[in-house]
Specification:
mainly beta; 5 strands; 55% strand
């Protein structure tokens, strides 16, 4: 579990891979907006918010 993020990590585009409730993997790309209370908060460049529990994330890769 991530408890503190470096301020330089925010506002950058990430590839996100996470587990669905059925154990399957899903992927997307979005900008990291915030981390807190056990969740990652992402914003899509074309508007929209994506919120995911930290424990569901398999990998994060900064693509900027």
């Amino acid at each position: 579990m991530i408890t503190k993020m470096d301020e330089k990590a925010y506002g950058k585009l990430y590839n996100i891979e996470w587990y669905l409730g059925n154990g399957k993997l899903q992927t997307t790309s979005a900008m990291l907006a915030n981390v807190g209370d056990g969740y990652f908060y992402f914003e899509y460049p074309d508007s929209g918010l994506f919120i995911i529990e930290q424990r569901a994330i398999r990998s994060l890769e900064c693509i900027e």
